[in-house]
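Input (structure):
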């Protein structure tokens, strides 16, 4: 298993050690998915050490603001992390997968399907990821590579720790299925 991070290297290393202790193989690569050169270099290094058959694109950040107050920096940080990250990680892996088999799983969000107040940038990025997923799935289906997106509702993570949550189950279809923050 390959774990990637842009921050929290110690946490990724700890998980890798746990996997190795259980008899698995694990690698850790630290790079910013928005950086095309760093992404490609890290992926080339990993491919030199192991085959990669499955990729889970789960990079995401939030920079919430009402649209009139949304800065260009906040727009690009969110959109670039999701969409450039998808491209920078997935594109170098497609041809190696074509030679064997592959699974590409993109973590989108319910916000990309329904929209969300104060998250125009996040909803746009996640909706774009859904569109890219659909198109790439059509492109790679004949090559024994599946491409799917998962669009969960709110998940209690550090990313949403400071987000205002209204608790409306219509905006989070799974509102009753997981732990709730107070």
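Output (sequence):
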């Amino acid at each position: 298993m390959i774990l990637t991070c842009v921050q929290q290297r110690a946490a990724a290393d700890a998980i890798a050690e746990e996997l190795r202790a259980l008899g698995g193989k694990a690698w850790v690569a630290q790079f910013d998915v928005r950086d095309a050169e760093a992404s490609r270099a890290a992926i080339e290094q990993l491919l030199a050490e192991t085959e990669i058959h499955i990729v889970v694109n789960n990079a995401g950040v939030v920079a919430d603001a009402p649209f009139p107050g949304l800065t260009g920096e906040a727009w690009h940080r969110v959109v670039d992390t999701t969409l450039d990250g998808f491209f920078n990680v997935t594109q170098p892996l497609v041809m190696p997968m074509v030679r064997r088999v592959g699974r590409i799983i993109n973590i989108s969000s319910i916000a990309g399907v329904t929209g969300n107040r104060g998250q125009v940038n996040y909803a746009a990025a996640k909706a774009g990821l859904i569109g890219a997923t659909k198109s790439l799935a059509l492109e790679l289906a004949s090559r024994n590579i599946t491409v799917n997106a998962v669009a969960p509702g709110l998940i209690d993570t550090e990313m949403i720790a400071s987000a205002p949550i209204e608790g409306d189950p219509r905006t989070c279809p799974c509102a009753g299925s997981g732990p709730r923050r107070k």
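Notes: The chain has a mean pLDDT of 89. The longest helix spans residues 72-98.
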